């Protein structure tokens, strides 16, 4: 009897101990690489550090004042807004169209569920090289194809300050739309076929069925995808940096690129940290607003 | 007739999708096999007339590409290995042993996944400087694992739930302790989940640019994303060479994906639907 109660009393605790031990490596990594640096950004933003890691002293909110009155920073925030909305719109439209066609039963449609993801899997640096090659003003296939149909003298859009941003949004969308497509496709498969059959009996056409059935039922997943996808695309540095480095003349300097340049080209670590903190606060505010406005209503 | 008309937009969309996705990949592949004269020809050829391996030969003999390739493989394989270990252990603790507060920790994992990596670069650099890890491959592995493991732990959740709990009880009756149960019974059953996680971590590491660009300084430690962009800067006119380099950078990311991709897509969509 005594033996039995001891056994049952001890087992859960040793299980918990083992459980904690198993979670520990992940917890340590997350605290060390994500948690602590996040905290440190705040501390760093109150100092006057130049080159990352050099000595520094406390200066209070000076960096914040300078950042908030810096027109270049607000310009970068504005471009981040364009970048975010541009990517969101382009990727959602392409992802939806893709999700609708990769669900087919044909052999090519089934294969497409694999190859559609290729642009997402390949490294960003490759994406950058590919699109610079395709759009190269002298030898690129895109300007040549354009010339063949009568549009002459198409230069590389990445070097044009008016076209660089839209071109980068398209390039980045090519890189990221497969993720959205697959997620939407997965969600579409959960919609029961009977609903469509019932609608068809009622005489609804494909267009109507899309807007009345598919779209509303996908609202929760679109909401989540919009939130996560927007946060991810906001944070992108590599797609932009590898092609234009934020140029020409700052035309593609979004907030993360601005921060990256501040820290590692201008060597002003504390300014970069202050701008990071402001950016995180702005981002959190936008996310909060988005959740309040766009969250799908629970069914009564 | 009407059925055919209904299918037309679908076929057209599929055609556009094919050209948009596979077109660029086809074009860089054929470009890599063209010689210097053919690649710059004013009327482009769709198929190389004189296929050549010169670009690849130059890539592997005249540039540092082999070094970058080796570094990328080392970092990506170590990242995949450690991510599999860390996320398997954490997922077992969270979803199988159900330690108190497991559901809250799981939420935290997702929040952490959305924190902008770039904004952490400056303080992270300092952390690694203190630990004297700047300019080592280990620094890259640590960062990559820290950014992949939380998501992968979450990804493994569905795979864990698919294993019946009766199995644990049966094994417990047979006298298997929790550690033996984990390694002997659950681990083999989780092979598809672990391969998914491994491929994800490998591809993440293979692609990672921002951290690799700052945490590593020495040329002989640089990974492909940094190395290839350096080659791009040096050999701007030599497009054939660049295309060969791009192709060799893409293939190692696509091949593992072809094998584990099915699970991968399944895992992602399962996670998304929840």
UniProtKB/TrEMBL annotation, chain A:
Entries under Gene3D superfamilies matching the protein: MetI-like
Q: Which InterPro entries match?
A: MetI-like, MetI-like_sf, UgpAE/MalFG_permease
Using the record's annotation, list all stretches that form the ABC transmembrane type-1 domain: 77-290
Keyword Membrane carried by entry:
yes
Q: Which UniProt keywords apply?
A: Cell membrane, Membrane, Transmembrane, Transmembrane helix, Transport
The highest taxon in the source lineage is Bacteria
Where does the record say this protein resides? Cell membrane
Is Membrane among this UniProt entry's keywords? yes
Bilayer disposition of the protein = Multi-pass membrane protein
User: A cellular component term (GO) from this record?
Assistant: plasma membrane
Q: Which GO terms describe its biological process?
A: transmembrane transport
Chief subcellular location:
membrane
Q: Which PROSITE patterns match?
A: ABC_TM1
Transmembrane region(s): 20-39, 82-103, 115-134, 163-188, 209-232, 272-291
Family under the similarity heading: Belongs to the binding-protein-dependent transport system permease family.
Q: What is this protein called?
A: Sugar ABC transporter permease
From TrEMBL, chain B:
Its subcellular locations are: Cell membrane
Q: Where are the transmembrane segments?
A: 12-33, 73-95, 107-128, 140-164, 185-206, 239-259
Q: Where is the ABC transmembrane type-1 domain?
A: 69-260
Q: Which PANTHER family match?
A: MALTOSE TRANSPORT SYSTEM PERMEASE-RELATED, MALTOSE_MALTODEXTRIN TRANSPORT SYSTEM PERMEASE PROTEIN MALG
Q: Which Pfam families match?
A: BPD_transp_1
Signal peptide coordinates: none
What superkingdom does the record give?
A: Bacteria
Is this entry keyworded DNA damage? no
How the protein sits in the membrane?
Answer: Multi-pass membrane protein
Please state what the protein is called. ABC transporter permease
Species source reads Phytohabitans suffuscus
InterPro entries found in the cross-reference section: BP-dep_ABC_trans_perm, MetI-like, MetI-like_sf
